[in-house]
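Extended Data, panel c. Modelled sequence:
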Amino acid sequence: MLKVYTDAAVNGNPGLAGIGIVVSGNGLYEQLSIPLSGSWDNHRAEWEAMRVALKWIEANQKLNSLILLYTDSQIVADSISKKHVKNINFKSFLNECLALLNHFSFYEIHWIPEKQNRGADNLAKQALQKALNNQKK
């Protein structure tokens, strides 16, 4: 079983952003802190965090594991659970996430409060700081 936590941090809305991902289980512990280029709003950045996490799972051949996905974004969790998004701006993110999830043997997605997502949150904030530092160069 793999537990995957995702989060995003944005400076301004829209603004620079970073994403954080924690993957643990089956003797594995991976932390990803990725600055994003361009301008992001908070919802799109949360979607990007989930998309990147799913692509990481696929690239690392973990598709046959039970995958438990955790996000503090209600929009991302609800949209993936219902396989529907109200805001058309998120449709491409949802479609890509669902296409990736179709390759998984079994997954669940859960909304969690921010306080239960501190690991991914800290990584997202570190990535945002990298994005801000890169902009100053």
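The longest strand covers residues 28-40. This feature is highlighted in the accompanying rendering.
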